[in-house]
Structures are given as C-alpha cells and as structure tokens.
C-alpha cells in the first residue's frame, strides 16, 4: 500500500515542567475520560512503551480506562529521574486512510523504517542520530480522532530523551 508520512521535526517541542508532561500523557493515553478525544474508538489506539530490556512493547485493544492509566504509569516510571527539560516529543501524520486489514503491516513499516529515517534526516545534532532513535520512551498511535470502523487515519506521537 502506498502512503505518505508527514513528519514534523520537534527541535523545540519540549515540556515546561512535570505538570506539562503529565497533562500531555493524559492526552496521549486518554486517561482523562472527560476530555473530548476519549470516545468509543479509543480502543483503536496503539501504544508502544519501552520496557526494561530496551525493546518497545506493543499494546493494542486497550479499551479499558484502567489499562490506559497503567500504561501512563509505566511511562512516568520510565522517565523517573530524567530532568523534564531533557524530554521531547514529535509527531508524524500518515495519509491516506489505511484499511484495517493492512494497518499492522503499515504501522510496523512506519515505526521500524520510515520514522527512523526521518529522525536521522532531521536530527538536530548530526552524528548523534542513533542516540535519538534509541532514546525513544514511547509511541502513541492515535486512530480514534477519525476512526470510521473500516479504515485508520492516524498520527503517531513520540516521546524521547534528548541525549547529548
């Protein structure tokens, strides 16, 4: 399937303080059930969180609020001890809509090949690209903002540690 990725380099998209980070995580993980983005299609979101061995673990069909709260806690635990000023986030938009039957293949391709190449190209510190890729703490793929039950139109957020 042909698709396009529109990556927005972050450069200055950091967090002001711990409260800003926690509010952003509430948005990402839909843990505030009163926010406008939480909806029946929130179950279509996909979460990838770095685990102890350094790999990214996929979480799909996370329909229950308490499950999303637990994932948010895992991210907060992962950034414990890291100065919030070292954390950054970026976003990539994917188009056109992806048929559900092809979604996993497209997502894997985007996470493993397309975005790392974009990060290498836009890395603010040339020669240190791999550190930026290896410092990813989590990805959140939001499909619920335009999910129609048949296709995914989504964007991917990433939080990572700025390593110098």
The gist of it:
This protein has 164 residues and is an alpha+beta fold.
Structure description:
The structure is a single chain. The chain is α+β, with helices and mostly antiparallel strands. It has 4 helices and 8 strands; from the N terminus they run βαββαββααβββ. It has helices at about 20-30, 65-80, 105-120, 130-135, and strands at about 5-10, 45-50, 55-60, 85-95, 100, 135-140, 150, 155-160. Strands 1-4-8-6-2-3 form a 6-stranded antiparallel beta sheet, sandwiched between helices. Strands 5-7 form a two-stranded antiparallel sheet. The radius of gyration is 15 Å and the shape is globular. The N and C termini lie far apart (about 35 Å). The mean pLDDT is about 75.
Task: Give short descriptive properties of this protein.
single chain, 164 residues, alpha+beta, 6-stranded antiparallel β-sheet, 4 helices
Structural class: alpha+beta
Query: Taking strands numbered 1, 2, ... along the chain, how are they ordered across the largest sheet?
Result: 1-4-8-6-2-3
Could you tell me how far the N terminus lies from the C terminus, measured between alpha carbons in angstroms? 37 Å
What is the beta-strand fraction?
Answer: 25-35%
> What is the typical, i.e. mean, pLDDT?
76
Helical fraction equals 25-40%
The helix count comes to: 4
Report Rg.
Answer: 15 Å
Q: Assign an overall shape.
A: globular
Largest sheet: 6 strands, antiparallel
């Amino acid at each position: 399937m042909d698709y396009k990725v529109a990556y927005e380099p972050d450069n200055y998209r950091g967090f002001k303080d711990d409260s800003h980070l926690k509010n952003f995580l509430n948005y990402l993980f839909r843990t505030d059930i009163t926010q406008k983005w939480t909806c029946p299609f929130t179950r279509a979101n996909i979460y990838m969180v770095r685990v102890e061995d350094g790999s990214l673990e996929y979480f799909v069909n996370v329909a229950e609020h308490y499950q999303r709260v637990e994932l948010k806690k895992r991210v907060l635990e992962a950034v414990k001890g890291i100065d919030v000023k070292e954390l950054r986030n970026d976003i990539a938009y994917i188009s056109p809509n992806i048929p559900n039957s092809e979604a996993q293949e497209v997502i894997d391709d985007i996470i493993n090949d397309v975005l790392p190449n974009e990060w290498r190209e836009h890395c603010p510190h040339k020669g240190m690209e791999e550190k930026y890729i290896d410092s990813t703490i989590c990805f959140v793929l939001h499909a619920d903002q335009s999910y129609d039950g048949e296709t995914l139109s989504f964007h991917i957020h990433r939080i990572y540690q700025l390593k110098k």
